TrEMBL record:
The protein's name: Oxalyl-CoA decarboxylase
Keywords: Lyase, Magnesium, Metal-binding, Thiamine pyrophosphate
Cofactors named for this entry: thiamine diphosphate
Residues annotated as domain Thiamine pyrophosphate enzyme TPP-binding: 430-572
Similarity remark: Belongs to the TPP enzyme family.
Top-level taxon of origin: Bacteria
EC numbers on record: 4.1.1.8
Sample GO molecular function, one term: oxalyl-CoA decarboxylase activity
Domain Thiamine pyrophosphate enzyme central intervals: 232-362
Pfam family name, one: TPP_enzyme_N
Organism: Azohydromonas lata
Source taxonomy: Bacteria, Pseudomonadati, Pseudomonadota, Betaproteobacteria, Burkholderiales
Length: 598
C-alpha cells in the first residue's frame, strides 16, 4: 500500500490539525511496537479512488475534509479547489460526462453539502456520473439531534436527488463504499451518487496490509447491455417502411462515445439527423445530412423518428403537440433504461441497451442493400436548409453598433471553425438560444451547456472541468445574468492558470437591460443590472487578461489572442441592451408572457 503511517517506539500523537478538523479527542500517548504499519481513513479514501483510476478531486476545503485535500494532493492526485461547492459539483458532473468516470466533488458538512446538492441533482437529471463526497457529523449525535457542529442528516436529505446514497462508518468498509458509489454512478443510466463520510471515520486506523486488501478495484462498472434480437428486427422493419425517417441524437449519444458507429449509422442509412445541443459535433454541423437548419420542418413532417440517447421531455415538446405536426409519429427509441420507454408517447420499437451495442446491432441488420430515404424527403430538407442558412449568413455579418447577438455570435462562430478542438461552454437565455443554433460544432463532446433542467450557473464549473480533464482551450459563452451565478470562479481559473476564454454578453440585465421600475421608485427594475459594468476588470484583478469588445472584429481578435496565449481571459462583449427577448425562446413557459401573446 502506498500510504502508511510508520510508528516507532517513541510516543506518537496525531497532528493537531487532524484532531481539530475531525473532532477527535486526543488520546493518551500510546507506546507501540517498532515499525508497525498502519493506515487511516484519510489514506484509505485516497487509495480507493486512485485504485479506480480517479486522479482528480473538485471541491472546497474545510471541516472535516481539509486534511483529506492536503493528503490527496501529497499522494499525487489533482485537487481543484473552488470558491463555492455548487461550482465544484458542476465541474465534477462535467468531468463525468467527458471521461465516463465519475467526477468527484468533495465538500464540508451541512451547508457545504447543500451547496453541492444542486449539482448532484443536476448530474442525475442529465445522466452524468458524479459522486458527491461530504464530511458529516457522527450518527449518534445526529440521530439524537444533540446540536453538533453543522449537524444534519445528509444521507436522507440526498436520497431524493441521486441514484444512490451510501454512508461509511468503519475504515474497513471504505473500499466497498467507494466501489459501490462508482458502480452506481456509471452503470445503467449514469447519474449522481452521494457518499457520506462522518468526521470520525478519517482518523480510524487499521493494519496497512488489511487496509490494502479491503480496497476494491471495480471491474467493468458499465458493462455492455445488448438489445434483444427481435427488438432490433422490429426497428429495422419500421425503418424500411418509412417515407420520411429522421434520426434524433441526444447528449446520451455523445456520452456513449460510440462516435464511429453513430456516424456509420447515419451515413449508411442516408437518414437525415437532428442533434440536440450537446450532441452537436458527433457529426460536423456542416454535414450534408444534418437537418438542424430545418429543425421545425423535420420534426413536424417525419413519419418515423429514431431517438438515440435522447428523451422526449420538454426540450422536445414531450413528443406531441404542434411541434410534431398533425400526423402521429412512430418512434424507435434507443435507451439503456427500460423505464424511459413510453414515458410520453407510445414507442413502437424500443431498443433497450447501451447505445454502442444497439447501433452496432442495427448496422449488422441493415446489410449491404439498404434502401436510402426517398429523394423527395431529403430534397425538401436540403431546400429549406439552404434557404435558412443563406438568410442566417446575412444576419451574422451584422455590423450594428452596439453589437446584437447575431453579430457577436457570427464572430465567435468563425473562431470555433478555426479551432474545432476548443470546448464551448454555453449558458444564458438569449445567449444560449442563439449560440446553439449559430455556432457550429465539428467534434464530439465539444459543447457543454445547461442541459435538461436549463440550470444557470454551470458555466465556470463546466469550463474548469473541461480545461482540467482535456487540456484543450475552452470558450465560455455567457449571458451576463448566467455568469453572475459562478463568476467568482474566475479566481479559480486564474489560480490554476487554465486556458479559458470567457465571453460575457453584457446587455445590462436579465434578458435585456431596458426594464423600468413601474412604481417610479429609486430601485432599479428586478431584471436590470449596473449599467455598463466592467466584467473584464474581475479577471485582471486576479492576474488574468481582461478586455472590452464593442464590435465583432474586436471580439474575434480578442478571442484569437486569448486562445493562442492560453491565458485566462475575460472579454466583456458589449451588446445592445434592447437586443434579446423575454425568456429567450421559451416564452411559452413564462405564464405572464405566454398569456400576453394569446
Amino acid at each position: 500500500m502506498s500510504s502508511v503511517i510508520e510508528k516507532s517506539p517513541a510516543t506518537r500523537v496525531a497532528p493537531v490539525a487532524t484532531l481539530a478538523e475531525t473532532g477527535v479527542q486526543a488520546a493518551a500517548p500510546v507506546v507501540e511496537q517498532q515499525q508497525e504499519q498502519l493506515t487511516d481513513g484519510f489514506h484509505l479514501v485516497i487509495d480507493a479512488l486512485k485504485l479506480n483510476d480517479i486522479d482528480t478531486i473538485f471541491g472546497l476545503p474545510g471541516i472535516p475534509i481539509t486534511d483529506l485535500t492536503r493528503l490527496a494532493q501529497a499522494e499525487g492526485m489533482r485537487v481543484i479547489s473552488f470558491r463555492h461547492e455548487q461550482n465544484a459539483g458542476h465541474a465534477a458532473a462535467a468531468a463525468g460526462f467527458l471521461t465516463q468516470k465519475p467526477g468527484i466533488c468533495l465538500t464540508v458538512s451541512a451547508p457545504g453539502f447543500l451547496n453541492g446538492l444542486t449539482a448532484l441533482a443536476n448530474a442525475t437529471v442529465n445522466c452524468f456520473p458524479m459522486i458527491l463526497i461530504s464530511g458529516s457529523s457522527e450518527r449518534e449525535i445526529v440521530d439524537l439531534a444533540q446540536g453538533d457542529y453543522e449537524e444534519m442528516d445528509q444521507l436522507n436529505a440526498a436520497k431524493p436527488f441521486c441514484k444512490a446514497a451510501f454512508r461509511v462508518l468503519h475504515a474497513q468498509d471504505i473500499g466497498i463504499g467507494i466501489a459501490r458509489a462508482i458502480r452506481a454512478a456509471c452503470s445503467g443510466r449514469p447519474g449522481g451518487v452521494y457518499l457520506d463520510l462522518p468526521a470520525k471515520l478519517f482518523s480510524q486506523t487499521m493494519e496497512a496490509e488489511a487496509g490494502r486488501r479491503s480496497l476494491v478495484k471495480v471491474q467493468d462498472p458499465a458493462p455492455r447491455q445488448l438489445p434483444a434480437p427481435d427488438t432490433v428486427a422490429r426497428a429495422l422493419e419500421l425503418l424500411k417502411g418509412a417515407k420520411r425517417p429522421l434520426i434524433l441524437l441526444g447528449k446520451g449519444a455523445a456520452y456513449a462515445q460510440a462516435d464511429t458507429e453513430i456516424r456509420e449509422l447515419v451515413e449508411r442509412s442516408g437518414i437525415p439527423y437532428l442533434p440536440m445541443s450537446m450532441a452537436k459535433g458527433l457529426l460536423p454541423d456542416t454535414h450534408v445530412q444534418s437537418a438542424a437548419a430545418a429543425r421545425s420542418y423535420v420534426l413536424a413532417e417525419a413519419d418515423v423518428v429514431v431517438l438515440v440517447g435522447a428523451r422526449l421531455n420538454w426540450l422536445l415538446s414531450h413528443g406531441k403537440g404542434k411541434t410534431w405536426g398533425a400526423e402521429p409519429k412512430k418512434f424507435i427509441q434507443i435507451d439503456i433504461s427500460p423505464t424511459e420507454i413510453d414515458s410520453n408517447v407510445p414507442i413502437s420499437a424500443p431498443l433497450v441497451g447501451d447505445i454502442g451495442s444497439c447501433v452496432s446491432a442495427l448496422l449488422a441488420g441493415m446489410g449491404s442493400g439498404w434502401q436510402k430515404p426517398p429523394a423527395e424527403w431529403t430534397g425538401a430538407i436540403a431546400q429549406r436548409k439552404d434557404k435558412n442558412l443563406s438568410k442566417m449568413a446575412q444576419t451574422l455579418e451584422s455590423k450594428a453598433f452596439p453589437m446584437n447577438f447575431h453579430g457577436a455570435l457570427g464572430a465567435i462562430r468563425k473562431v470555433v471553425q478555426e479551432r474545432p478542438d476548443a470546448i464551448v461552454v454555453n449558458e444564458g437565455a438569449n445567449t444560449l438560444d442563439f449560440a446553439r443554433s449559430i455556432v457550429d460544432m465539428y467534434e464530439p463532446r465539444k459543447r457543454l451547456d445547461v442541459g435538461t433542467w436549463g440550470v444557470m450557473g454551470i458555466g465556470m464549473g463546466f469550463a474548469v472541468a473541461a480545461a482540467v480533464t482535456t487540456g484543450k482551450p475552452v470558450i465560455a459563452i455567457e449571458g451576463d445574468s448566467a455568469f453572475g451565478f459562478s463568476g467568482m470562479e474566475v479566481e479559480t481559473i486564474c489560480r490554476y492558470q487554465l486556458p479559458v476564454c470567457i465571453v460575457i454578453f453584457n446587455n445590462n440585465g436579465v434578458y435585456k437591460g431596458t426594464d423600468v421600475n413601474q412604481t417610479g421608485g429609486a430601485d432599479p427594475a428586478p431584471t436590470v443590472f449596473v449599467k455598463d459594468a466592467r466584467y473584464d476588470l474581475m479577471m485582471t484583478a486576479f492576474g488574468g487578461h481582461g478586455v472590452t469588445a464593442t464590435t465583432p472584429d474586436e471580439l474575434g481578435r480578442a478571442m484569437r489572442e486569448a486562445i493562442a496565449s492560453g491565458r485566462p481571459t475575460l472579454i466583456n462583449a458589449v451588446i445592445d441592451e434592447t437586443a434579446g427577448t423575454e425568456s429567450g425562446r421559451i416564452t411559452n413557459l413564462n405564464p405572464t408572457r405566454a398569456a400576453t401573446k394569446k
